[in-house]
Every structure is written in structure tokens, then in C-alpha cells.
UniProtKB/TrEMBL annotation:
Pfam families: Aldedh (PF00171). This is Aldehyde dehydrogenase family protein. InterPro entries: Ald_DH/histidinol_DH (IPR016161), Ald_DH_C (IPR016163), Ald_DH_CS_CYS (IPR016160), Ald_DH_CS_GLU (IPR029510), Ald_DH_N (IPR016162), Aldehyde_DH_dom (IPR015590). The keyword Oxidoreductase applies. It comes from Cryobacterium sinapicolor. Belongs to the aldehyde dehydrogenase family. Keywords: Oxidoreductase.
Amino acid sequence: MATPTLKNFINGRFVAPAGTELLHIVDPTTGRLVALAPVSTAADVDDAMTAAKSAFRTWGRTTPSERQRALLRLADAIDAESDAIVEAQHRNTGQPRATIAADEVAAGADQLRFFAGAARLLEGKSAGEYLPGMTSWVRREPIGVVGQVTPWNFPFLMAIWKIGPALAAGNTLVLKPSDTTPESTLELARISQGILPDGVMNIVLGNGGTGAAIVEHPVPGLVSITGSVRAGMAVAAGAAKTLKRAHLELGGKAPALVFAGVDVAKTAAAIADFSFYNAGQDCTAITRVLVHESIHDEFVEAFVAEARGRTTGSADDADNYFGPLNNVNHFGDVVRKVAALPDHAVIATGGHQVGTEGFYFEPTVVTQVRQTDAIVQEETFGPVITVQPFSSEEDAVTLANDVNYALASSVWTRDHATAMRVSRDLDFGAVWINTHILLTAEMPHGGFKQSGYGKDLSMYGVEDYTRIKHVMSALE
């Protein structure tokens, strides 16, 4: 069977790109080629921007109820096409099919329904006479065209996080999916035909150069990326050239702070779930476990046993907890980081590739690390978790905050006052108490420091895709 060549989606149709360079899309479970994708050129990006700009003239003036109906229809169509989306994404990520179906497709449809409702709830200050003889009011308006870049770890769900608030607010968009996982986003484009007007959502495939062309194009008023810190810095710098707004959801190095008094076995099992989910390829995943010294050794023993019980391998085997790392470059990066561990660090379990085919890596627990070690300070984005002891609440918070990332964290304790104090003092955009990683459409998600700025989900996320205008009128 011939390897399919993917196409861009511009102005409601799948179209061949202007460029001839092709990317290899590889199944990470086998390392085998499954598709070819174009590297879209500046001309392709310009075509997509032209379509989005033209469509905005109509879509930007639709009523909130019209946008709501379109998004609700799209959500229903996503549910109906779940199997096709799952298969497309599985080819590119190797994730277990049940995980994709539940945590991305069903969750994505649900979140899109939230954004559909949010389209009708945008608010501003009430009108009033703040100067004699003058009435002022606030208009909350769509920005216009927005440019968006999504990552490879949750390709479908992250596309929903981008298009949902943008379309609900009345914007049109040009989106580039990751160069290794474009197929489920193209399924979303296919499903949108006949539901979204032509040109409202445009998908261009490509590499970093294509993303840069989107960011630096003069048409978008905002560019949004979910990705690495390095990519976010590049987007911020590119956006600054034309003073467009940037919306950045970047990396994480999430700590879990475990205090004395918890049920050690239960806590170790839960933290293992939230650490190794999706092979640790989640910017909110637990990567550092900080444990009170009085229960440190007991916790490590329990946590290592839990890690060994979370096997990786074929998505067709229901006993496997997570699938492969996404691509050969990322796999090599994780292998190098583990190989570069300092002599004082101890690999309590794991540390090796699983099998000889595909990009599978063992659940790995590293102890006796120091705060300055690269494995503690730098994002690994794989199934590699460090465990460190702490002596006091102040010590725990200091260690947790002493990284450049500030996206997610969690507190594990039976003491309410401890939970309240520590959740206040943790310098992270999200703090969970006795749980981790769970998200809901109604609550915001986004970080501080080098984890970026701007919020996904919630009304805050929708507001990020709007602009504020003051209008004043004389009464006579």
C-alpha cells in the first residue's frame, strides 16, 4: 500500500501545498513510516491567513447563539466520529486507544460544549455616566485572526483547547499541529466541513519554519502555542516583531509534596498514576516527589513497587499502562538525560528501553538526587521521576519552588491547615490537594515563570481571545 501524503485544510477544502518538501510521520510503536506531510511554505501560510481574514468578516459578526449552535454541532460530530479520530491519532502517538477515546475525544467534545455555552456569557462593565452628560460602556470583541501551534503529546485535545475559545469569541484561525502528530487534527478539519463556514478554521502542516511563518505573519492579532519553553520563547520573540499578543502554555516540572501522616501505600499508588500517565509526556505530570524525611524510605519502597507495576508496551495489551515516547528524537533525549545522571543519583527502578522495536521506556524512579541536578531542574517529559526528602514545611515549599517552571503542583496531606498554607505558598498556576492532573473545562489552566502566560479552559481562556473597547457617547 502506498504511503499517503497529507494535505493542508484551507478555506474549507483539503489542498496540496506550494512546497515540495515532505516530513515523515512515523508510528512510534514500530518506528515505521505511516504518512508523509508537507512542509508548508510562507505562501501556504499566506493562503490560509487570507482565507481566515476573509471569513472573519462574516464569522466575527455572527451572534453568540449562532456560534454556540455551530460548536455544539461540531461536538456532536466529534462524538460520532470518535473511532476515526482515535485511529488517526493512534497511528501518530501509539497511545492506548481507550485513553485517546476517553481522555481526548470524549473530553474534547465535552470541553467544546463548554466553549459553546461560553460564547453567550462574555461580560463587561455595565454602562454608566462616569462623566456628566456622557454614557460609557465596554465592548468585548474578537481579536480577528489568531495563529495557533499545538504539541504532539495530546494532539486532538490541544487542538480543542485552541479552537474552542477562539471560535467561541468570534475569531477565525490558522492552526499548525505538531510535525509528528497531524492526523487527528486533520480529522477534526474533515469533521468540521459543513458545520463551520469555509475559512473559519484552517490547518497548515509543517515544521518549525512553518510555525515561525504563522507567528510573524502580519494578519494575526494573537498567536498561541502549547509547547516547550524554547518554542515559547521563539514565539514570544517572533510576535514582538509586530507587537501581536502571545498566549503561551509551556513546560512544567511539577512537584508533589507528601507530608507525614498520609496513607503511604495509597499515596504512592496515586502519585504513580499521575507520574507515568501518557509516559510522563504531560507538562502537568508529577516529575518530582518531595517526601517528609520521616516517611521517605517507606514511600520510596512503595513507589518503586508501584512503578514496576505500570508496564509499557503495545496499546493492544490492556495490561500496559502507557505507550511509547512520541518520536525518535524525544526518545533519544530521554535516554541521554538518564545516562547523564550524576554518580550520586540512584536509579531505584527502570532506566532502560523496553524491547527493540518502537520508542518504549521503562517507568523510572531516581533517588538521592540534589536540588541542583539537571534531572531535578530541567524538564524530562518522560517516565522519569525523582524523589527527594524534606525536613519541614518551609523546606518543602522552597525545594518545590526552586525551578524555572511554575505550571502545576500538588499537596498530599491529611491536615487541612497544611494544605491551605502550602497551596498558598506554592508558586504554580495549579495546585491540587490529594490528587493531581485532573482538569475541568470550567477552571483555568496555565502557569507562571517559564511555564508561560495566558489561560486555557474556563471563561478566562475565552477572554484571552478577546479585546476590550471603550465607547463613550454624548447624551445630547
